[in-house]
Amino acid sequence: MNNNLQAWGWNDHFAAHFAPFAEQDVCVGRIVLEHKRLYRVMTEHGELLGEVTGKFRFTASGREDYPAVGDWVVITPRVEEKRASIHAVLPRTSKFSRRAAGETVEEQIVAANVDTVFLVNALNNDFNLRRIERYLILAWESGANPVIVLSKADLCEDVERKVAEVESVAIGVPIHAISAERGDGLDSLAPYLREGQTVALLGSSGVGKSTLINRLAGMDLQRVSGVRSKDDRGRHTTTHRELFRLPSGGLMIDTPGMRELQLWEADDGFRDAFDDIETLAEACRFRDCSHEREPGCAVQAALADGSLQRARFDSYRKLQRELAHLARKDDARLQAAEKNKWKKITMAMRHAKPKR
Ligand SMILES: Nc1nc2c(ncn2[C@@H]2O[C@H](COP(=O)(O)OP(=O)(O)OP(=O)(O)O)[C@@H](O)[C@H]2O)c(=O)[nH]1
Ligand SMILES: [Zn+2]
Fold this sequence. Notes:
The structure is a single chain. By secondary structure, this protein is an alpha/beta fold. The chain is 34% helix and 22% strand. The protein has ten helices and 13 strands. Helix 3 links the parallel strand 8 and strand 9. Guanosine-5'-triphosphate binds next to helix 5.
């Protein structure tokens, strides 16, 4: 274990914000795991189990004020007990958040202080420029620097053309085509993975995020232990962390919340992403056709004659279910507000886009 705080991402920004606390008998640490308001905090004294103080709770105005994975927090360590009291969260350089459904809907931070976010998109049939645009908006809003990672290059025959297409919607954003399976192009990611640099991944399910993380982490990654043989169960007490060091010295954040962000981005872009299916559906005999076994279903017809791929239809259905699930969970009013915000941002993006 490395207790040198620079190795965990400490830098001048955080040092400046910590200055007012320096007189007091406190130190700092970085949140590497959150579990029901209990936090694993990496500190110069090693890893401690932290809880926020009563005063913290009293002054917190909402969920977003609480520590999240990646945050730097001001603590009083109790080293013998391996515990810590958390007094404050230092200002974040970036944050990814989602709306959390509780008694009210609040902003919940799913990752903080990410330097670089890899926007992972697969180069096979799933390739979609509109989706890349939406991920870019998300990244820019977060404060992290976006880097576009085009995965599964081994499944694509015209990588250069695809890269050129992405360049046209992502001017000035670094683009890297890789194959995590073959190990191609991984060297190009090294500059973002230097010691103390924090990265996170965003991308739809199945684009190869886990495969890439495992590659970057080498064989010893905790997450990999999730894939273990049945008889091995229970013996493995590997310490799972949502922020962990890669062999390169880079810091990777992989939280469940970050993985779920794909659902939020999908909301407004749903029609765009699947406009081929939506267009087909307009030709269905019934307006409210569920494309299951209704007579005169144009989607089923396209599936039957092969003009629509089964896998694509399946992911359409999956996304639809996920969105429906989210819609049920969510406060309708807040959702409307969020949609409006998105509309404004996408409009602005459209106007900002250079003519092609
Ligand atoms: N051909 C090829 N397949 C890949 C590559 N990277 C990942 N895959 C495959 O794509 C599938 C999905 O990969 P995952 O790494 O689980 O994708 P993920 O983005 O983590 O998916 P979620 O966990 O659902 O978010 C797996 O079957 C991988 O073996 C690649 O570079 N080339
Ligand atoms: Zn139909």
